[in-house]
Amino acid sequence: MLDLLRCSGQGAHWVLAYAWNPLLATDVAGSGHIDIVGVLLLLVSVAALVRRWRAAAALAFGLAVSVKLLPVVLLPLYWRRVRMRDAALAAVVVGLLYLPFFNHGRIPLGSLGTYVQRFRFNDPVFATLERVLAPQLAVALAVLVGFLTAIWMRSKTPAWSSEAFAWPMAASLLCAPVVYPWYLLWLLPFVRSTSTLPIILWTVSIIPTFYVWHLRTLGRPWLVPAWVMLLEYGSVAQQRRALHPEG
Fold first, then answer.
1. Cβ neighbourhood burial of 130 (10 Å; 0-12, 13-18, 19+)
2. Percent of the chain, pLDDT > 90?
């Protein structure tokens, strides 16, 4: 992250802002979620991309996607910035990771189908979409939103802009069926501009959702209380309106 800050001419103090974010304490130091490994790989990929180490950028990106699928929506940011042979190398390496788990030539999807069909948490947008769409289509729409945001950000922001990496993942997560706090770890290294203030606020306003784990120990349903969801998304929407009063 320091390397990226120096390459972009931004202050090193952003490293402290990153390290002091409560999500790092609760979901990495406290809970040890593997997402932080994917975040590291994604940062390595972006740093390599800036330096035009295209093979390293493609390989690190493929490994980041192997940790969790969320950053796949950033693919438009890599288009024509890495060579086809670099992309092929990354695809081969990712394929080799799956190879030990192949079952009679079938790609192992694990619990992905169950995740799409049944897993729900902190998902107001997805819950609305699911009223009119099948779960598979609603998930596909969430991915499409991320892709389209990446395409738009690439055309509207300077090369290697951190916000171009933050907003596509944020847009896709907003429409996802499950929005756990540790999913937002992927956004943290890239939120260091005024335009990403709503995302910065989201990384803090999502923390009250941990209250659900306490309710679960009391035998209460696995549901985010309405007041928690209002606090989380209402504050983010208010911040966005403050930045873009025209709508």
1. middle
2. 63
Whose tokens are 């997805």? That residue is 126
User: Which residues fall within 8 angstroms of residue 101, CB to CB, at 6 or more apart?
Assistant: 108
Q: Which residues pair with 178 in a beta bridge?
A: 121
Q: What is the structure's pLDDT at 245? A: 57
| Stretch among 79-93, 107-121, 172-186 having the lowest mean pLDDT | 107-121
What is the total residue count of the chain? 247
0.85 exceeded by pTM? yes
Handedness of CA 154, 192, 196, 223 (dihedral sign): positive
**CA atoms of 172 and 138, how far apart (whole Å):** 11
Q: Say how many CA atoms lie within 13 Å of 206 toward its Cβ.
A: 26
